[in-house]
């Protein structure tokens, strides 16, 4: 395996669209790094530049200590797993797994020595003679993984590999990917727009926005101490409440930012408690109640008249809170996040 580094990488397309702006991303040998962000943030472009499918406008791409910026994909010793699986429909699973090795001129014995263990590791022994059209979505995904595994590359690249699976299969395949990483100690760069995938899979996550890196760190560090308002609002479900001026709290409890002094309070829905009206930090009126089995997601409007900003609160499912009820809200003072409203940067 090998490390991966992007050093000052930029990508500007002929139409003027800037997809990457001075990216500096370092992935350690054997690390599982997830690039996460909304559509159009540049994460897939970054992955394609690592793969050699896109050429940077500026900067360098290194795999190990080798500068591969100008090398074609086949000379980079990487394996890429796409969202669409890209399996050959006329070939069996065995043939799909062996295809890359055959193209490299490997002997039949060498191919069997790699295909059979990979099939066992991924639970594909019973479907080796079937074609992709006879497989479930989860099985096709595992074949795509296996085809990458048998090549024994220096780096695995995954581009939204689970987005075509249903919710149950996504959870199962996430676990399979985590086991695969532990077993192979592989260097993996994984792109997703799904922040839940990022938090559960990544050893570290890189949050991107508009071609820039917003924050890099272990998943729970990014969740607990978001560096910017964008990260705070993007990472976590339900999304963090962001209230300009710290409206949930009395003025004495609000910090002051530089410049014009405007601040934004961030607090996660799980860190706001429903209490009796008049006994918390402020009152609010229930607008929508969403039962979620083990919890209740409430959408409220600040003020007893319900005319203020929206706040989301996660409450116990019982006792139920009726729509249009007035309730008190109490914030956990140990779980507050403060941001400069102008720069969007964290204050503490």
Give an overview of the whole structure.
The protein has helices spanning 43-51, 93-103, 108-121, 137-149, 167-184, 195-201, 219-224, 229-234, and strands at residues 4-12, 18-27, 32-36, 58-63, 66-67, 78-81, 155-159, 187-192, 204-209, 212-217, 241-244, 263-267, 272-275, 282-291, 296-302, 310-315, 326-331, 337-340. It is an alpha+beta fold. It folds into 2 domains: 4-231, Rossmann fold; 239-340, Beta Barrel (OB fold (Dihydrolipoamide Acetyltransferase, E2P)), CATH 2.40.50.140. The strands form 4 sheets. A 6-stranded mixed β-sheet has the order 6-7-8-3-9-10, sandwiched between helices. A 5-stranded antiparallel β-sheet has the order 13-17-14-15-16, with no helix packed on it. Strands 2-1-4-5 form a 4-stranded antiparallel β-sheet, with helices on one face. Strand 14 (282-291) and strand 15 form a beta hairpin. The longest helix has 18 residues, at 167-184.
List its salient traits.
348 residues, alpha+beta, Rossmann fold, OB fold (Dihydrolipoamide Acetyltransferase, E2P), 2 domains, 6-stranded mixed sheet, 5-stranded antiparallel sheet, 8 helices
